[in-house]
Amino acid sequence: MAQADMVFYVGLGLETQVEAYLRDHPSKTRRDISFAQAIGISAATEAHDDHEHEEGHAHAGPDPHLWLDPALVERLIPKLKESVLAALKSAGAADAGPAAEAAATKLLTDVQALDTEGKDRLAPFAGRAIVTHHAAWSRFAEHFGLKVAAVIRPIETSEPTPETINKAVAAIREQNVTAIFVEPQFNAAAAERLSKEAGVKLGTLDPLGNGDWFKMMRDNVDAVVRVFGP
Ligand SMILES: [Zn+2]
User: What predicted TM-score, i.e. pTM, was given to this entire model?
Assistant: First the structure.
């Protein structure tokens, strides 16, 4: 990062080491852009959001998984374009404007298309409650009309306690949950047991993907459709 002209990060405490580095290494030439800041979300603007706050929640405060909500990505694009453009100009690429404009417009169009497609495909399941692996999906769920009833790993870094599992079992019964979604980054054993015990279907949602945001989002929409579909 010492040689970066521009650092893009999510913010809201998601990347504590990145934020600490930027704070400790101020630079006149480096441009720092945070997703949260660019679209005006901070712990203060969202003092307490809707998603479940379990005891010892790993992400206390607003859900930082901003990229899982296409509406927020749409808001980010013009801000990101401005920063990239400013960085290119100060690096001497004075004629970068039209190309950056065109790229941003194309990106926005593609994100909007994915958003519309996802909404259309998920509309039949509006209001359904799901259980997720870690607390990454409140924004995705809200955007697409789903509801997160419980989270299996409220503390992202540790295996669920029996108490958490009991709470999830209760939430599944009370809120009529018919699907549990595991994430490839975590051990699925507890979720698998839970799905057997509660007689609930198991799907996979991937909050990170492999670098292709569009594929990741489409796969996640597919995963929900597959679990709820006929
Ligand atoms: Zn997370």
Answer: 0.90
